[in-house]
Automatic annotation (TrEMBL), chains A, B:
Pfam families membership: Peptidase_M32
Molecular function in Gene Ontology: carboxypeptidase activity
Domain of life: Bacteria
SUPFAM superfamilies for this protein: Metalloproteases ('zincins'), catalytic domain (SSF55486)
Family as reported in the entry's similarity comment: Belongs to the peptidase M32 family.
Taxonomic lineage of the native organism: Bacteria, Bacillati, Bacillota, Bacilli, Bacillales
Catalytic activity: Release of a C-terminal amino acid with broad specificity, except for -Pro
Name of the protein: Metal-dependent carboxypeptidase
Keyword Hydrolase: yes
Functional summary from the UniProt entry: Broad specificity carboxypetidase that releases amino acids sequentially from the C-terminus, including neutral, aromatic, polar and basic residues.
Organism this protein belongs to: Siminovitchia terrae (Bacillus terrae)
InterPro entries (alphabetical): Peptidase_M32_Taq
């Protein structure tokens, strides 16, 4: 389709913005994978210039003029232009509504808060971090007023990460999860059928871990000509463009699960970014549609697929070879149970596949309370600890293993946490549809043939990038709205069998 | 010193340009050290956007206004502002004088020419490349008219790489070199004292080569917190900022000299960039002052320091350890002679320290002839081959080992070649002064204590970045102008002793 002159200039303008963005993403990748530390100070200047350029372009008079000219007749625009315009308008409104002075103050606050949080966590002293958290919440409350809200004020924050998902939906689904998971954990704890896990913590060389991980990435269909694997401290995946989607990991010599499941997790994110339709390149639509849908892909591969017994029927022998002799005397059933062990613990990022949802629900309930003035920041450590005791049966002994454990709030990322659990629910729900469409799903895992799974996900999710909203995707794939039922069914079935409940 | 408002905005403007430049340099580094190939197409778009932004800023009306406002009273400006302004004006004039349409055509021609050259070289067929070379020369002749010239037209091209150095100077010094080197090579060829070199070509694992190279880089004073070492196909060093100066290399399992001398070469470039004064960061002065001075540092370390017997008195035993057993039966004298072997050959980048200057002189004479209409492109292969026969006593059998061997002309880089040899001359001349200032020079090499040498070079060269012109630096250091005498003295003394002439 031929574009009009103003459509073409709009798309050119957006392409330039995306070029700045891609350069920024490469700089971030580099900073986290081995950039020399003495160059960081000046590199930060470069980041400042490029991100300011990008930001200014998003709220410029030129952008305003494009919106004014095109938005009124958006129905007539070619779909790609229309969706791009909608996304640009969303960002324009979001950025433009905050007074520049306040935004600047907020950015400075974020940086300070992160470094104070780090020290506070080290000293396990919430009182140090408290004044910063108060300011961060205060700013976000003002932003909510600037941005406006429908229903619950917290909806506006949710919308930043998971557009269309509201407190109403989350309350209902999270309640279902609690009702099922809390008693399930209790039953498991009382079961006599506890797995042996010592063999998971034996020495396994980094090189061998890497070789095995690369094999699994290959099975998953990760395209090595469109990506690379590097080391970092806090692993991540980054899609610079669909032809360049990089993943990173951290190796622990005495716990291979960190790198291997970590790589599978980032690999899930990467498959999404690698398989976005080429025509979206150079537009803001060329990325995953939301944090939750993105997480659904990493969690599908990490938690569901790679912790499935069938997956290990094919891969356990291979793992044994790479691991040296340490797994030789272990049966696949012992192994399968060990990697699916569930046990209440205090630290979210170290928790297992069954208790994880409760960690998220606690954070969600606290955030919602904060933004609806039902919780005072003074009471946070106490409320946090009480909830851990109530839901997981264990109580943090200090702030470091309690309210101070996550960086998210220090970064001002309120509304982000629910995405993790939305992702897990989406993953179970999508998988439920997938196995109907691919009845040989189990057989594919057992033969290491994961390609049809990636193809199916590409067809139904990946290729669309950001052109479909999360709930629109879920509806199109599964024929219904978000439902916790699939995750609870999955967890109940799996853990009942594992622990012989 | 406090800057006026317009001085401050000018320096801010320049800082922004340099930020774009640093981002570009990082992208180039990434493209050459492992960027996934499928992402390259889109990355080229990003390069296009950023480099166009940078280019447009260099010739913008804003830049013109800064120059108009500040240049008239440049004597009153603080030195840093003044030098920055001069550099910006130089670039402004250079870029502004070429009509945009012609420049665009030229950029496209360069890209095409490089890919045609590659194929032509593979097929050893100059006629394929000839029409492109004709166009490239034609464009550059027009540019010379746009830019203007003093004396010889070729001076304008020399000035792009080695400001202030003219045909007059080069003709004189290169003549001296020919007069000494050509007969010296003949004498060497007739000498009975030829070195054994078989032991240089035995297997030496990449990992061990790397470990040894890192040791040498450490001795040189390369700051590993301000740089890193990666692999690439065509090795290079890149200074993103003084805190981030990266070097790259290529390993040949059966010829360790490629990586080790290569790393020392790039290390020399890197020391320069790492030790530029911090106050120059964020200005166009924060880089080496010219191609020739830069090359003087890489060649000083690679050819002069690291091929000195004293250097190996300290390092040969270490090398033996890393090399396994293959060098155990070799004496330091046999080794020293082997790594300094001289013998006429056809390919510049594989040539030795003594014959190398003649390769450059041949290219210089041809370029000068081309731009003074004394040589026709039709005759190039013949002229090239005749010169090789005349100066080196050997004749290329085809275009691939003759006129097509270098990428420079395909890239439109006329006037670049002489920098290599200017660098070699500078290196010998600077070293002559250095050993007077550091009489214990030999002793330092013998004890692996190279730090004082780096300090001296930092003090006299590195810290100035681009604030001093090449000949100004040479004059300040050595008290005189460029002279080939120091290189000829060095070569005669060294090779006479080596070959017992």
């Amino acid at each position: 389709m031929r574009l009009s002159e103003s459509e073409t200039s709009f798309m050119e303008y957006v392409k330039k913005m995306e070029a700045f963005n891609e350069a920024l993403q490469l700089i971030y990748w580099d900073l986290r994978t081995g950039a020399p530390k003495k160059g960081v100070k000046q590199r930060s200047q470069v980041v400042g210039v490029l991100s300011n350029e990008y930001f200014q372009m998003s709220i410029s008079e030129e952008m305003a003029a494009f919106i004014a000219k095109l938005y009124g007749r958006k129905q007539e625009l070619p779909e790609l232009v229309q969706k791009t315009l909608e996304e640009c308008k969303r960002v324009y409104d979001q950025n433009k509504k905050i007074p520049p002075k306040e935004y600047k103050e907020y950015v400075i606050l974020q940086t300070e808060a992160e470094s104070v949080w780090e020290e506070a966590r080290e000293k396990s002293d919430f009182s140090m971090f408290k004044p910063y958290l108060e300011q961060l919440v205060h700013f976000n409350k003002k932003f909510i007023e600037y941005w406006g809200y429908r229903g619950n004020k917290y909806n506006t924050l949710l919308d930043l990460y998971e557009p269309g998902v509201t407190v109403e939906t989350i309350d209902k689904e999270f309640e279902t999860l609690k009702e099922v998971i809390i008693p399930l954990i209790k039953n498991i704890q009382e079961s006599e059928n506890q797995p042996e896990t010592d063999f998971l913590y034996q020495s396994f060389s980094k090189e061998k871990q890497k070789e095995f991980s690369l094999k699994i990435l290959g099975q998953m269909g990760y395209d090595f000509e469109a990506g690379r694997l590097d080391e970092t401290v806090h692993p991540f995946a980054t899609g610079l463009n669909p032809g360049d989607v990089r993943i990173t990991t951290r190796y622990d010599d005495c716990d291979w699960r960190m790198a291997i499941f970590g790589i599978i997790h980032e690999g899930g994110h990467a498959l999404y970014e690698q398989n976005i339709s080429e025509e979206l390149i150079g537009t803001p639509l060329c990325t995953g549609t939301s944090m939750g849908i993105h997480e659904s892909q990493s969690l599908f591969y990490e938690n569901i697929l790679a912790r499935d017994r069938s997956f290990w029927e094919y891969n356990f022998e291979v793992l044994q070879k790479y691991a040296g002799r340490q797994l030789d005397h272990i049966s696949i059933d012992e192994f399968y149970h060990a990697i699916n062990k569930a046990e209440p613990s205090l630290i979210r990022i170290e928790s297992d596949n069954l208790t994880y949802p409760l960690h998220i629900i606690i954070r969600y309930e606290i955030e919602k309370g904060l933004f609806n003035n039902e919780i005072s920041i003074n009471d946070l450590p106490e409320i946090w600890n009480n909830k851990y005791e109530q839901y997981l049966g264990i109580r943090p002994k200090n702030d470091a293993e309690g309210v101070l454990q996550d960086v998210h709030w220090a970064a001002g990322s309120f509304g982000y946490f629910p995405s993790y659990l939305l992702g897990y629910m989406y993953a179970a729900q999508i998988k439920n549809t997938m196995v109907k469409a691919i009845p040989e799903y189990d057989g594919l895992l057992k033969t290491g043939n994961l390609e049809p799974i990636k193809q199916w996900l590409s067809k139904h999710i990946y290729r669309y990038g950001k052109t479909k909203k999360p709930l629109e995707l879920i509806k199109a794939i599964t024929g219904e709205g978000l439902s916790a039922k699939y995750l609870t069914d999955y967890l109940v079935k799996k853990y009942t069998a594992l622990y012989e409940l």
